[in-house]
Design brief:
This protein is of the alpha/beta class. About 35% of the residues lie in helices and about 25% in strands. Strand 6, helix 5 and strand 7 form a beta-alpha-beta unit. The N and C termini lie far apart (about 40 Å).
């Protein structure tokens, strides 16, 4: 008899999209799923307390490494689902010869045209920590730039509205993410290395729960690799389905 597995994901839509792929494999092999979502730090705390069996997924080593470190010996890393990385991006209509790197935000024409609010997501996200450091270490705050945390809709909605009006805006973002499936967003060069580099989105399971996963399911999960482009597309599909169901 297959066991019920408690699968958790960080409460962002692309994590949800990846989790559904993992859960689908588990279900095919007879497992029942109890799914849950929570903000970054809370989800790792739940796993540390043994309240979930599997987490989709830990971005290692930069974004989530500090959250996993206290209980890393208690989990097994099953597979790398994709290779995420954070960016500060601008819409592609912002000329690259005028705004190519973060430091260009301090020079004309960006000083005249770029919106000063850099709207992010929740404070526990790696991109939020990285963005605060960028504002401080580049002295962007002295030019009136402000990084602000908020919801997904605060961040994405502001970007979409800016694009609709052809306004110059910086979006603190990452790959994979559904906006990349619809818009051309150019990453600014950030030579100080404050964006954390490329992580490995790692499927992790508590060791005591690993023994309850049927071998064929475990083998299928170990072979699973989605890639950034597919996760962005899955995220976009999930968002479209959510909008359609709410209409």
């Amino acid at each position: 008899m297959s066991h019920t597995l408690r699968v958790g994901h960080i409460d962002l839509s692309f994590h949800d999209a990846a989790a559904r792929e993992v859960e689908g494999i588990l279900c095919v092999h007879g497992h029942r799923i109890e799914r849950s979502a929570a903000p970054h730090e809370e989800m790792f705390q739940r796993m540390a307390r043994g309240e979930i069996d599997m987490l989709v997924s830990a971005w290692l080593p930069a974004s989530h490494g500090a959250y996993l470190a206290p209980f890393e010996r208690e989990v097994t890393k099953i597979t790398v689902l994709y290779e995420p990385y954070c960016i500060w991006g601008v819409p592609d209509y912002v000329p690259e010869d005028e705004v190519a790197q973060v430091a260009d935000l301090l020079k004309p024409p960006a000083l005249d045209r770029m919106e000063r609010l850099i709207q992010g997501i929740n404070p526990g996200a790696g991109i939020s920590r990285f963005s605060k450091a960028i504002v401080e270490q580049y002295g962007l705050d002295h030019a009136g730039y402000e990084f602000r945390t908020g919801t997904e809709e605060d961040c994405f909605g502001r970007f979409i509205q800016a694009v609709d009006g052809k306004r110059w805006v910086v979006v603190p973002l990452w790959h994979p993410q559904w906006l990349h499936n619809r818009y051309r967003i150019r990453a600014l060069t950030e030579p100080k290395g404050l964006l954390g580099g490329q992580d490995k989105a790692t499927l992790i399971v508590r060791k005591e729960a690993e023994a309850r996963i049927v071998p064929d399911a475990l083998a299928a999960l170990a072979a699973l690799h989605l890639g950034n482009r597919r996760v962005s597309a899955l995220d976009d599909q999930l968002r479209q389905a959510s909008v359609a169901s709410a209409a």
